[in-house]
Specification:
- The strands form 3 sheets. Strands 1-3-2 form a 3-stranded antiparallel β-sheet, covered by helices on one side. It has a 3-stranded mixed β-sheet with strand order 6-7-8, with helices on one face. It has a two-stranded antiparallel sheet with strand order 4-5.
- The protein folds into 3 domains: 38 residues; 235 residues, K Homology domain, type 1 (Ribosomal Protein S8, Chain: A, domain 1), CATH 3.30.1370; 75 residues, 2-Layer Sandwich (GMP Synthetase, Chain A, domain 3), CATH 3.30.300.20.
- The longest helix is centred in the first third of the chain and has 105 residues.
- It is mainly alpha-helical.
- The protein is flat and about 155 Å long.
- Helix 6 packs across helix 7, helix 8 packs across helix 12 and helix 11 packs across helix 12.
- The protein has 14 helices and 8 strands.
- Helices cover 68% and strands 8% of the residues.
C-alpha cells in the first residue's frame, strides 16, 4: 500500500509539474503579446509626438516672422502719424489764417456767418419744401379725387336706400279719450300691470286720443306698443289679460326680430352667421342713432362696403359681412358697458366670426388702429351712410358746439385774423394776415389746422379747410 501510495504521489507530482509548466508557458506567451502591443502603441504615440513637435516648430517660426512684420509696421505707422500731425497743424494754421482774412473781408465773425448761412438755407428749404408739398399734394389730390369720386359715385348709384325717421318714443293712438280711463284701470292697477310686464313707462297726459310709451329699450317699447294695440282692439283690459297679451307680443316681436336679421343677411347674400348673432342683428330694427334706423344703416353700409371692395378688386362677401355687423354692438350697448364697437367685436368673436371681421368691427370708429384696407372701407362706408343729407339728425347744442370748436382750433394759430365754419360744419374758412403769412405758409397752415381738427374732434365724413390770404395796399390822395 505504501508503494502504491508513493507511485500515485509521484504521478500526481509529475502531472502538477507538467500543468504548471503549461500554465507558465501560456502566461509567458500572453505577456509577450501584450508587451508587443504596448510597444507598438508607444511607438505610434512617439511618432505622433515627433510630428506635433515638428509642426509646433514650424508655427513658432511663422509667429516669430509675423511678430517681426508687426514690429516693422508699427514703426512705419508711428513715423506716418508724426508726419500727419505735422501736416494737420500746418493745415489748421492755414485755415485759421483764411478765417481771419474772410472775417476781415466780410465784416462778420464765424458764428455770425454760420447763423446767416443757416437762416438763409432754412428759408430756402422751407420755401422749396412748401412748393414741393403744394405740387405733390395737388397731384395726389387730383388723382385721389378722381378715383375716390368714381368709386363712391358708383357705390351710391348702385345703392339707393330708403330712409324713415323714427322717434325715441312710441305713440299709440286711441279710438277715444274714454279708453285712457280703461287703460289706467281702477286705482291704476291696469297701467301698473302694463308697466311691470313690459318695463316701459306709459305717459297719459292731455294729448287727445294718444298714449306715449317711453323706455330706453326699443325692443321692449315695441312689445309694449304691440300689447297696448291688441288690448285696445280686444277691449278686455285687466291684469291677467295684460300678462297673456304681453307674452304673446314678446313671441311675435322675437319672431319679427329673427326674421328681420335673416332678411337683412339674405338681401346681402351673407351666409353662415350664427343664429344668436342673427337675433341680435334683428334687434337693430328697433334701434335708432340720430334718428337713423340702425338696421337700415347697417344694410346700407354693407352694400357700400361691398361695392367699393368690388371696385378695388377685393373680396366683396367679406366686405359686406363686415359692413352688416359693424354696428352689432348697438343692439346691446344699453346692457353692457363699453363702446358699441368694442361690444360688437367681443360679440362677433364669441359667435365664431373671423379675426379679420372682429378687427374691422372694433376699428370702424378707430377705437383700435386699422390694419387692412377692409377696415378703412368700413369706416368710409359708415361715414358715407351717416353723413349723407337727411340720414341723421343732430342735437342743436352739439351742432353749435362743434362749429365753435372748429373756429376755436383755427384761431389758435399764429397769423389767423378770423375763421368761419360754414356748410353745416363741412367747411372751415380761415382768413390770415397777408403780412405774416406767405402763400407757401398758407399751404402749411391748412395742413396743420386739418391735423389739429383730426386729433381734437370726432366727426363723420370730412371737413374742408380753406386758408384765404390777400394783400391790401391802401393809399390816400390828398389835395
Amino acid at each position: 500500500m505504501l508503494g502504491d501510495a508513493k507511485r500515485r504521489s509521484e504521478n500526481l507530482l509529475k502531472e502538477a509539474r507538467l500543468e504548471a509548466k503549461d500554465r507558465l508557458f501560456k502566461m509567458k506567451a500572453e505577456f509577450d503579446v501584450k508587451t508587443a502591443e504596448i510597444k507598438n502603441e508607444l511607438k505610434r504615440k512617439e511618432d505622433r509626438l515627433i510630428v506635433k513637435s515638428e509642426n509646433l516648430d514650424k508655427r513658432h517660426g511663422q509667429i516669430e516672422k509675423r511678430e517681426m512684420d508687426v514690429s516693422w509696421r508699427e514703426k512705419n505707422i508711428s513715423k506716418n502719424e508724426e508726419v500727419l500731425d505735422k501736416k494737420c497743424k500746418k493745415f489748421k494754421h492755414l485755415i485759421d489764417e483764411q478765417k481771419i482774412k474772410l472775417e476781415n473781408i466780410s465784416g462778420l465773425t464765424s458764428e455770425q456767418a454760420k447763423e446767416l448761412l443757416l437762416s438763409t438755407l432754412e428759408n430756402e428749404v422751407r420755401y422749396e419744401g412748401a412748393k414741393l408739398i403744394n405740387k405733390i399734394t395737388g397731384e395726389a389730390k387730383e388723382e385721389a379725387d378722381k378715383k375716390s369720386k368714381k368709386i363712391i359715385a358708383t357705390a351710391i348709384q348702385r345703392y339707393a336706400g330708403d330712409f324713415v325717421a323714427e322717434r325715441t318714443v312710441s305713440v299709440v293712438h286711441l279710438p277715444n279719450d274714454e279708453m285712457k280711463g280703461r287703460i289706467i284701470g281702477r286705482e291704476g292697477r291696469n297701467i301698473r300691470a302694463i308697466e311691470a310686464a313690459t318695463g316701459i313707462d306709459l305717459i297719459i297726459d292731455d294729448t287727445p286720443e294718444a298714449v306715449i310709451l317711453s323706455g330706453f329699450s326699443p325692443v321692449r317699447r315695441e312689445i309694449a306698443r304691440m300689447s297696448l294695440t291688441k288690448l285696445i282692439a280686444d277691449g278686455r283690459i285687466h291684469p291677467a289679460r295684460i300678462e297673456d297679451i304681453v307674452k304673446s307680443a314678446e313671441l311675435e316681436v322675437g319672431q319679427a326680430v329673427k326674421e328681420a336679421g335673416e332678411q337683412a343677411a339674405f338681401e346681402l347674400g351673407v351666409h353662415g352667421i350664427h343664429a344668436e348673432l342673427i337675433k341680435v342683428l334683428g334687434q337693430l330694427k328697433y334701434r335708432t342713432s340720430y334718428a337713423q334706423n340702425v338696421l337700415q344703416h347697417s344694410i346700407e353700409v354693407a352694400f357700400l362696403t361691398g361695392i367699393m371692395a368690388s371696385e378695388l378688386g377685393l373680396n366683396e362677401k367679406i366686405a359686406k359681412r363686415m359692413g352688416l355687423l359693424h354696428d352689432i354692438g348697438k343692439a346691446i350697448d344699453h346692457e353692457v358697458e363699453g363702446s358699441h364697437a368694442e361690444i360688437g367685436a367681443k360679440l362677433a368673436k364669441k359667435y365664431g366670426e373671423s379675426d379679420q371681421i372682429v378687427h374691422a368691427i372694433a376699428a370702424h370708429h378707430e377705437d383700435v388702429v386699422p390694419e387692412s384696407v377692409y377696415d378703412l372701407l368700413v369706416q368710409a362706408a359708415d361715414s358715407l351712410s351717416g353723413a349723407r343729407p337727411g340720414a341723421r339728425k343732430e342735437l342743436l347744442e352739439n351742432y353749435v358746439k362743434r362749429l365753435e370748436d372748429l373756429e376755436e382750433i383755427a384761431n389758435k394759430f399764429t397769423g389767423v385774423s378770423n375763421s368761419y365754419a360754414i356748410q353745416a360744419g363741412r367747411e372751415l374758412r380761415v382768413i390770415v394776415e397777408g403780412e405774416k403769412i406767405s402763400d407757401n405758409d398758407s399751404v402749411l397752415l391748412s395742413r396743420d389746422i386739418a391735423r389739429e381738427i383730426e386729433e381734437s374732434l370726432t366727426f363723420p365724413g370730412q371737413i374742408k379747410v380753406v386758408v384765404i390770404r390777400e394783400m391790401r395796399a391802401v393809399e390816400y390822395a390828398n389835395k
